[in-house]
Amino acid sequence: MAIAGADNEAGAPLLSKTVDGSVDYRNEPAVRSSSGGWRSAGFIIGVEVAERFAYYGISSNLITYLTGPLGQSTAAAASNVNAWYGTASLLPLLGAFVADSFLGRFRTILAASALYVLGLGLLTLSAMIPSDCKVANPLTSCSPPRFQVIAFFGALYLVALAQGGHKPCVQAFGADQFDEKDPEECKAKSSFFNWWYFGMCFGTLVTLWVLNYIQDNLSWALGFGIPCVAMVLALVIFLLGTSTYRFCIRRESRSAFARIGNVYVAAVKNWSVSASVVADAEESLGLISHTRSQQFSYLNKALVGTNGCSLDELEEAKSVLRLAPIWLTCLVYAVVFAQSPTFFTKQGATMERSITPSYKISPATLQSFISLSIVIFIPVYDRVLIPIARSFTHKPGGITMLQRIGTGIFLSFLAMVIAALVEMKRLKTAADYGLIDSPDVTVPMSVWWLVPQYVLFGISDVFAMVGLQEFFYDQVPSELRSVGLALYLSIFGIGSFLSSFMISVIDKATSRSGQVSWFANNLNKAHLDYFYWLLACFSFIGLASYLYFAKAYISKRLNSL
C-alpha cells in the first residue's frame, strides 16, 4: 500500500504537466511546457498569413480578370465570382468531414496544401496562354481560346477544393493548441481567434497592395505565380512546427457523426412512443427537467429502448440543432459581405483613382481598407476594449459571442446604407458631367468616397466574422470542431450563392422591355444604388431575426454566452 501511495504521489505532478486528451507528434501525452500554446499557434498563424495571401491573390481581383482577359460581362463575371466563392466556402464541409472522421486535421492540412500548390500552378499556366482579350471594355466583347477558359476554371475550382480542406482544419488545429480546462490557456484561446483574424487580414493586405498592382500593370501569370510560391512556403512553415503541436485524441470508439446520426434515427423510430414512456426513460437516466432538456424534446424519444442513446449523445445532437437559427439569420450578413470583391470593385474602376500623375490605385486594392481597418482595430479591441468590458461583465471575452456577432451585423447594415448613398452621388456626378453614355470616361469623383463603406465592413468583420468563428468552434462537440468552423464558412458560401441568384433574377427582371438592368455593363446607366438599398432592407430584417433567436439560444455550456 505504501508503494502504491508513493506511485500516486510521484504520478500526480506528472499528470498536472500533461494536457488531458492531447498527444504530441510521437503519440505520447503532450507535455504542457513543451507543446501547444502560442508557441505552436505562431507557426499556424504564419501558415494562415501565407494561405490568405495566396487565396486573396486570386479572389480579390477575379472579377477584373473575368471581365478583362476572359471577356465576360459585368453581371456574368459577378455571378461567376459569387458561384466560385460560394463553392469555396461550402467545400470546407467536405474537408472537415474527412478530417474529423478519417484523416485527422494535421494530415488533411498536408493533403490540402499539396492540392493548393497544384491548383495555383495550373492557374498560372492558364494565364500564360495567349489571348486577344487584354483589357476590360464595357462597349466591346471578345472570346478567349476555349482551352484557356476550361483550364482556368478547372484550376480555379481545384483551388476551391484545396481551400475546403485547408481552411477549417488549420483554424481548428490552431485552437486545439490551447487547453480550455486551463484558465490561462482558455483566456488565450479567446485571444487566438482575434490574432488569427489579424494575421489573416495582414496577409490579405499585402495581397491587395502588391499582387493587385502586379496583376493590373505587369502580368497576370506573375500575379498568379507568386501565390503558388507563397503556398509552398506555407507548407514548409507548417512542417517546421510539427514537434511542438498538440494532437487531439478521439475518446469515443464511434465517430461523432455516427453518434449524432444515431440519435436522429432512434428518435424517428420511436416517434409513436407515448410521453409517459419517454418520461420514465428520462427519469431512469437521471435527466433533470429544465429548459435545456426540454428544448427539442421530441429528440428525447431516442432515450427509449434497449439500444437507446446516452444523455451525452442526446446533448451532442441537440447542440448541433441549436445552431440552425443562428446559421440561417446570419445568411443576409453573408450576402452583404459578398459585394466588396464584386460591385464595390467595379464602382471604383469608374472613379478618379490617381495618386500621382503617373500612378493610379487598382480598384481591387480598395479592398485593402477592409483588411487595414481590421489590422488596426483588432489590437485595440483585444488589448483595450475587451479588458474594459471584462471588468464589468466578468466574462473571458468581455462580451458574449452572440453580442459580438449582433454588433457586426448592425455595422454591416450601416455599411450598405452608406454604400447606397455614395452610389447615388456617383450617378448624380456622372449625370451632371454628361457621362451617362460614356462609360470609358472616368467619373470626376474621388475613389476615396468608397473608403467609409470599406472601413465599416472591416470593423463589422472584427465583431461578426471573428464572433462566428469562435461561436461555431465552441458550440459543437469537441470532435466536430473542424465541422463547426466549416458550418461558419458555409454561411458565406450559401450567402454568395444567394447573392449570385439575386443578381441573376434582378438582372433579368430589370432588363426586360428595353429597360436598363440594375447591373448594366455601363455602370453610369445601372442602378447599383437600388440593389444596395434592397440589401440594407434585408440586412435590417436579418438583424431583427437574429436578435430574436440569439435571445432564446441555449448554450452548450451554461453561462458561456
From TrEMBL:
It is a multi-pass membrane protein. It comes from Brassica napus. CDD domains: MFS_NPF5. This is BnaA09g30570D protein. Keywords: Membrane, Phosphoprotein, Transmembrane, Transmembrane helix, Transport. The keyword Membrane applies. GO terms for cellular component: membrane; plant-type vacuole membrane. GO terms for biological process: transmembrane transport. The chain crosses the membrane at residues 110-129, 149-165, 195-214, 220-241, 326-344, 364-381, 402-422, 454-473, 485-506, 530-549.
